Amino acid sequence: EVQLVESGGGLVRAGGSLTLSCSTSGFTFDDWAIGWFRQAPGKEREGVSCITTEDGRTYYADSVKGRFTISSDNAKNTVYLQMNSLKPEDSAVYYCAAHEGPYGSTWYVLGHPSEYDYWGQGTQVTVSS
To answer: Buried b / exposed e across 13-37, counting CB within 10 Å, b at 16+?
Structure first.
């Protein structure tokens, strides 16, 4: 059974940093797209970042480029999202999601929730001003 578990959320002041983890199980970490998404109250779920486990390609939403970094530890079947220079508008529930290859090769595809088959339960990130 494919499972994804997010951790690392919390309350942080604007300008601060957090690192989210997405621990996965139930599949071999060979050729998957693992994405991070977020959803704020009253808003649609939006793509934040994605990494492909086979070759380590990374993708980012424009709103987080230069501030967030996605990485993976294939030996631990875990994907991380390092978030720096956090802003109040980054506050949301953050979800990780997985899609087994083949998958799209553009952010337009990989940044859309419909591309993904498996989801975690989410972790809350709150950034105070």
So the answer is: eeeeebebbbbbeeeebeebbbbbb
